[in-house]
């Protein structure tokens, strides 16, 4: 792997940028691997990267049925934060945020991490109390955060509507200064390039159609490019995880819903923080290109259609226009949907399964992007050691029978 | 947004309805006799089918009555509407069986 630096940029500029090496190989699948990762999104690629880096397991393939980062990794609104309520979630998301903070250097790829600060608005007395409780819980867990009132919100976001007579008035907000955004494609491409450099085979257009299981032990996967043997298989396929668990013969507490996002025409810098509101289902940030990046809520019905309903967007845009009247005459440039895998307790499943050697990482719902490196890090540990790391031990599949749910609807809801 | 034919009111926009998730999940008659895993299966585990899915809807902004629907979750096409307490039409059952084997 050629190191990217100012010098490689200058050298290639001299050659009119015709001599850049491809960022990763596209090898044919080998007949057998130590570990096969199903799903070439951010979480799958991070898993492969940390398997190679932290555990020395490099005979690994990442199988992707489409193209890298073409699912939810390329469809989310790129928000990163770690201000979750419960200890279990706080440790998981904070691990991820810490890894994000060093990721550009670690993988020698600029993921454009921008720690511009994240606000989660409170619109009524209950919101205010819950927000204060969550901020206090964060601080007890060593995570930065503060509760701010309307005057401080005005300083951070001068364009927000603080009129107390609107339908959902802004009464206060949590503020995590270390939160922000990153470039989602760069996270996928950077992790792919760094994994490839450590020997991981990234195989696109390779769809898994079945699992080979002998006496309760995984032995490989069937794909549209033939059988691939594997000692261990990690499945990280977001919305399609129950399609996979059906093939493996066990059930999951997951439902798949469309989640929509959109961007506006690009404009000059107008908002330099991320503003989120779980109550009115909207979140707003501005990309480096100047587009407003807006996210909506999920459709109530389950679907695999990768497009949501118009009335969801209508409600979300109404909320945006009430919070930011200045945006009311802007035009939307693009709108799209992704299929998110929602869990009953709004927390992920990163777990062993009833099949030996088969591991699932799913249930991230509407907010997996922020967890990309942390999810890969704990999942790599789980696969390599055949037991979860203490961070992801609470996120097991059997919590639904033991009753130890991790109810993050307050901190997660739609506002991931 | 898709159109749903309420069996009582006729064809209306989806936004008039609320979703009731997977249909035909019967509450166990003797919950105290179930193991934790069986109870979890009833409470949390769902089919989440990619393909023909049997589900419940309620016409919230209309007659407020519940009914069942068979919908292809890949295309959002509604294949059949039938009343609560009824089983899905035979051709739908055949499609579901076929989906399992293909």
How do the helices and strands line up, and which of them pair or pack?
The complex is a heterodimer of chains A (416) and B (102).
Chain A lengths: L5 H9 L17 E7 L3 H14 L4 E4 L15 E2 L6 H21 L10 E5 L2 H16 L5 E3 L1 H7 L15 E5 L3 E2 L2 H14 L3 E3 L4 E7 L2 E7 L2 E10 L5 H8 L6 E12 L7 E4 L4 E5 L4 E8 L11 H14 L8 E11 L6 E4 L5 E5 L9 H14 L13 H4 L14
Parallel strand pairs in A: 1-2, 1-11, 2-8, 4-13, 11-18
Antiparallel strand pairs in A: 3-7, 4-6, 5-6, 9-10, 10-11, 12-15, 12-16, 13-14, 14-15, 17-18
Chain B lengths: L2 E4 L3 E4 L4 E5 L13 H8 L8 E7 L7 E7 L4 E7 L6 H12 L1
Antiparallel strand pairs in B: 1-2, 3-4, 4-5, 5-6
Q: What are the main properties of this structure?
A:
heterodimer; A: 416 residues; alpha/beta; eight-stranded mixed sheet; B: 102 residues; alpha+beta; Folate-binding fold; two-stranded antiparallel sheet; 6 strands; globular
Plain-language structure description:
The complex is a heterodimer of chains A (416) and B (102). Chain A has 10 helices and 18 strands. By secondary structure, chain A is α/β, with parallel strands linked by helices. In chain A, the strands form 3 sheets. In chain A, strands 1, 2, 8, 9, 10, 11, 17 and 18 form an 8-stranded mixed β-sheet that branches. In chain A, strands 5-6-4-13-14-15-12-16 form an 8-stranded mixed β-sheet, sandwiched between helices. A two-stranded antiparallel ribbon of chain A has the order 3-7. In chain A, a hairpin with a 2-residue loop joins β10 (217-223) and β11. In chain A, α2 packs parallel to α6, α2 (42-55) crosses α9 (372-385) and α3 (87-107) crosses α9 (372-385). The longest helix of chain A is centred in the N-terminal third of the chain and has 21 residues, at 87-107. Chain A starts with 5 loop residues before the first helix and ends in a 14-residue tail after the last helix. Chain B is α+β, with helices and mostly antiparallel strands. Chain B has a single domain (3-101), classed as Folate-binding superfamily (Folate-binding fold). Chain B contains 2 helices and 6 strands, in the order βββαβββα. In chain B, the strands form 2 sheets. A 4-stranded antiparallel β-sheet of chain B has the order 3-4-5-6. In chain B, strands 1-2 form a two-stranded antiparallel sheet. The model of chain B has no long low-confidence stretch (mean pLDDT 94).
């Amino acid at each position: 792997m050629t190191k990217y630096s100012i010098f490689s940029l200058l050298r290639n500029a001299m050659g009119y940028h015709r001599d850049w090496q491809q960022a990763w190989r596209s090898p044919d699948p080998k007949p057998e691997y130590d570990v096969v990762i199903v799903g070439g999104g951010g979480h799958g690629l991070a898993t492969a990267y940390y398997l190679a880096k932290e555990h020395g397991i490099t005979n690994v393939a990442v199988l992707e049925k489409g193209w890298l980062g073409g699912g939810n990794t390329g469809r989310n609104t790129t928000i990163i934060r770690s201000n979750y309520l419960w200890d279990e979630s706080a440790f998981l998301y904070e691990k991820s945020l810490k890894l994000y903070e060093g990721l550009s250097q670690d993988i020698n790829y600029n993921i454009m991490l921008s720690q511009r600060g994240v606000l989660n608005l409170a619109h009524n007395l209950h919101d205010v109390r819950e927000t204060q409780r969550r901020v206090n819980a964060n601080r007890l867990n060593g995570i930065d955060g503060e509760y701010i009132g309307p005057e401080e919100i005005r300083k951070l976001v001068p364009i927000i509507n603080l009129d107390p007579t609107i339908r959902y008035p802004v009464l206060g907000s949590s503020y995590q200064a270390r939160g922000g955004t990153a470039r989602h494609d760069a996270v996928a491409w950077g992790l792919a390039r760094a994994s490839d450099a450590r020997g991981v085979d990234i195989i696109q257009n390779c769809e898994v159609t079945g699992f080979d299981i002998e006496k309760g032990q995984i032995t490989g996967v069937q794909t549209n490019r033939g059988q691939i043997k594997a000692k261990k298989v990690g499945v990280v396929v977001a919305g399609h995880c129950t399609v996979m668990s059906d093939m493996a013969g066990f059930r999951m507490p997951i439902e798949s819903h469309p989640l929509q996002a959109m961007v506006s025409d690009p404009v000059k810098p107008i908002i330099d923080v991320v503003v989120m509101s779980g109550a009115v289902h909207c979140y707003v940030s501005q990309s480096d290109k100047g587009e407003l990046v807006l996210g909506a809520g999920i459709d109530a019905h389950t679907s695999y259609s990768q497009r949501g309903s118009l009335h969801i967007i209508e409600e979300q845009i109404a909320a945006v226009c009430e919070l930011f009247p200045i945006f009311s005459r802007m035009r939307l440039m693009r709108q799209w949907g992704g299929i998110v895998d929602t869990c009953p307790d709004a927390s992920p499943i990163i777990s062993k399964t009833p099949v030996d050697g088969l591991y699932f990482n799913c249930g991230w719902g509407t907010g997996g992007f922020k967890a990309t490196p942390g999810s890969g890090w704990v999942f790599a540990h789980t696969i390599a050691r055949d037991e979860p790391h203490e961070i992801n031990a609470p996120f097991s599949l059997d919590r639904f029978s033991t009753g130890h749910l991790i109810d993050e609807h307050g901190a997660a809801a739609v506002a991931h | 947004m898709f159109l749903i034919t309420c069996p009582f009111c006729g064809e209306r926009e989806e936004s008039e309805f609320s979703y009731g998730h997977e249909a035909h999940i019967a509450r166990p008659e003797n919950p105290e006799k179930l193991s934790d895993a069986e109870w979890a299966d009833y409470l949390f585990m769902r089919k989440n089918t990619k393909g023909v899915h049997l589900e419940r809807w309620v016409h919230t902004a209309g007659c407020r009555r519940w009914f069942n629907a068979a919908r292809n979750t890949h295309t959002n096409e509604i294949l059949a509407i039938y009343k609560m307490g009824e089983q899905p039409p035979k051709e739908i059952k055949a499609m579901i069986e076929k989906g399992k084997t293909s």
